[in-house]
């Protein structure tokens, strides 16, 4: 008998909590079933299996993250928007390591296209970058630069990878300064189209979110 009130939303929310506690890679149906006091089979009424659970968790976490970023960047543009975007990204990654790890998995493009949160990710990310006067293919290049910088910094920081005697926040602030300068003086592609388009994952910088 499935516990009263158990549904897909509760299962995914519990999976998000579990991911932060034990790591995304250790989230499984058996662990979740124990959390709810039910048998593993009971969860199959709400998720189709482990892959479906992790996909749902990735979309759930991606929605949480873009909501936080949207609040941070509201009413801002240029360097202020970039710093706010980056700060919200970093804070979420450090506060919710398991959920953040879920946002990095590859998801079926058809599921991404149907996700309002992922479309919002694309709109906010590209909107911020268009303020720098960028169009395609430079937009995609810029998204990849931001994604690799933010993700790499957070991954190293979360594991204590910065050992030099230099304040980590100070280095982060310098990185944002450098990114702003790079975007403001972007080496634009010549001889080809440079028009905005959709973003082409659940990653909060929109790298794999196809909106066309």
Q: Which structural class should the secondary elements be placed in? A: mainly alpha
Largest sheet descriptor: none
The shape, in one word, is globular
* Beginning-to-end CA distance, first to last residue: 43 Å
Helix content: 55-70%
> Count of DSSP E strands?
0
Kindly provide the radius of gyration, computed on alpha-carbon positions and rounded to a whole number of angstroms. 19 Å
Tally of contiguous helical segments: 10
Poorly predicted regions are: 192-201
Order of helices and strands: HHHHHHHHHH
Question: Overall pLDDT, averaged?
Answer: 88
Strand content: under 5%
Please describe what this structure looks like.
The protein has 212 residues and is mainly alpha-helical. The protein is 63% helix and 0% strand. It has ten helices and no strands. Helix 1 (8-22) packs across helix 4, helix 4 (50-73) packs parallel to helix 8 (116-130) and helix 9 runs antiparallel to helix 10 (168-184). The chain is globular and about 55 Å long.
């Amino acid at each position: 008998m499935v516990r009263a009130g158990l549904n897909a939303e509760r299962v995914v929310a519990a999976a998000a909590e579990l991911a932060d506690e034990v790591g995304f890679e250790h989230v499984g149906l058996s662990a979740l079933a124990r959390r709810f006091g039910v048998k593993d089979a009971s969860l199959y009424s709400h998720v189709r299996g482990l892959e479906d659970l992790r996909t749902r968790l990735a979309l759930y976490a991606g929605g949480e993250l873009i909501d936080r970023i949207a609040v941070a960047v509201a009413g801002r543009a240029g360097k202020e928007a970039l710093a706010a975007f980056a700060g919200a990204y970093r804070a979420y990654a450090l506060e919710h390591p398991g959920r953040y790890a879920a946002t990095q998995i590859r998801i079926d493009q058809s599921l991404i296209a149907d996700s309002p949160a992922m479309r919002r990710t694309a709109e906010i990310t590209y909107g911020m970058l268009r303020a720098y006067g960028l169009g395609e293919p430079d937009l995609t290049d810029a998204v990849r630069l931001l994604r690799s910088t933010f993700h790499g910094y957070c991954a190293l920081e979360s594991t204590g990878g910065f050992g030099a005697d230099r304040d980590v926040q100070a280095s982060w602030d310098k990185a944002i300064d450098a990114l702003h300068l790079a975007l403001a003086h972007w080496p634009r592609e010549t001889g080809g189209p440079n028009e905005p388009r959709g973003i082409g994952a659940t990653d909060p910088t929109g790298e794999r979110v196809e909106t066309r």
